[in-house]
Structure formats: structure tokens, C-alpha cells
Design goal:
heterodimer; A: 187 residues; mainly alpha; Butyryl-CoA Dehydrogenase, subunit A, domain 3; B: 112 residues; 4 helices; 86% helix
Chain lengths: 187, 112
Amino acid sequence: MDSEDAELVEGIRKGSEQAFNLMIDRHQQAVRGFLRRLLGNAADADDIAQETFLAAWQHIHGYRGGATLRSWLCAIAWRKAKGAQRAWVRRRTREAEYQADAVGDGGPGTWAEDCVAVQQALLALPIRQRAAVVLCLAEGFTHAEAAKAVGTPLGTLKSHVIRGKALLIRALGGDLGQDAEKEGPRD
Amino acid sequence: MTEFETRLQRAFAADASPATDPLFRIQVSLRRERAALRRHLAEALGFVCVSAVLAVLVLQAVYEVVESTSVRLLVIAILTMAYVAVFARRYLGIPSFVEDLSARVRSVIWRH
């Protein structure tokens, strides 16, 4: 945990709303980005992100400092997202179909087409693997941070990321093995 | 980085959340206020329920004290009144009778 986060945690423990607001400003992008890609729905993701920060405020005394603050927040978000999984699993299929229709005639390889292809490929992954891929590839977490957030052994998480990346590359029309081989250690 | 990796990064960057979002912070604050209000209401409701039960017990205890002069029941009655006074002060803003009484007793003892 860096010193700025340590100060924020100390402030929140003392009941400082200013410290809490600073924590939100500092980490909302990572938490919301993680949830948006995990759930494939911005409204649901923001709802859970708000619940995540509320839970962080209520349970800040339980934060031991073993993980980084953003990793701890994403761990809360991950648990909440898993809990809410049933509600959005049906909706996401309809939305993916709608997105595919909305892109229209962009043609293969366009920016919009890539976004939809990546989103659909992400949503096709098992949720634990999706979480690992999103944290490491989209949010810039180290493997160790992501493993703590998702509660997965480090080796399993690395495997999830490598395979997930290969599937995403394939969704973009690339070779399954070619890019996956280049995923180096990033602990 | 291969072409496909670049495209993958570009696709991830496309739907990134905003770096700062005051509205989101306000929404979290609102949610926190609502949660605090709900907790406060639940505590107040719990207090009302416990108070109702205790009121019945106190009435019974007072009645039995009058009837049998039982010291045990007198203690229960005093403790219950103290409990009600403390929580009434906390939730309803009523000055604590027990605290006022103890302050007066202390001042009388101090003077003598």
C-alpha cells in the first residue's frame, strides 16, 4: 500500500468524509472499469461500484493493508458482482445482440467492431477468468494484485489470463497461439 | 506488441471509465446517507420495541414491589428506568433524568 492510500485509510478510519471522497476519486476508475467489463452493463456496474465504496466505508477497519487498496476494493466489487450475477446474466445476452446490431456495417477490423468483438468474447468467458483478464489486461493490475482481488491462486490466475488473452485475440481475428505465447510474467 | 494486441488495448481503452466523476462521488455519498438513515431508523424501532416490553415489565415490577417489597424487582425497575433514560436521551433528545439526579446528588455531597 502506498503512503497516500495509507493516509486515506487512516483518515477514513477516523470518520473523515474528505478522505473517503478522495479514495473514491482515486479508485473509482479502476473499480468501475473492472465492473463494467465484467458485467457488460454500465448501469449495473455503477450500481455495484457504489455499493462497493459504501461497503468499504463500513468495513474499513477490516482492511489489514496486506493488499493494495485498489486490490481490496476490487475484491469487494468482485464478491458483490458474483452475488448479483444471476440478475444480469440473462440481460447481457440481449444487450450483446443489440450491440452487434447497432454496430451495423462497420466492417471487420474497425474500432467499433473491435469493441463489440472484445466485449462479446469477454462475456463468453467464465466469470472468474473474465475477472482475471479484465484486471490484468484492461486495468493494469499485476498478476499478484489480481490474484488477491479475485481470490485465485497465482498460477491459476496466470493461466486464466493467458488463455483469456488468446481467446480475445482470436475474437479479433488473430491467431490463438501466437499472441498468447508473448504473455510474460508480471508479478 | 502485435497488431492484434494493439487493437485489443484500443478496444479496452475505448470503454474506460472517466478518470474523475464528481457525480459518482455524490451518488456514493447519497447512498451512504440513506444507509445511515436506515440504520438509525432500525435502531430507533428496536428501541421502541424493547421499551414497550420493558414498560410492561416495569409496571409489573412496580406492582410487585408494592405488593411484596421484593428488592430484586426494585433493582430491575431501577435498571430499566436507567436504560430507558439513556436511550431516550440518545434518540429523542430528552435530558437524562438519571444524569440530572446524579449531578444534583454530587453537588449536595460536595457542599456538605
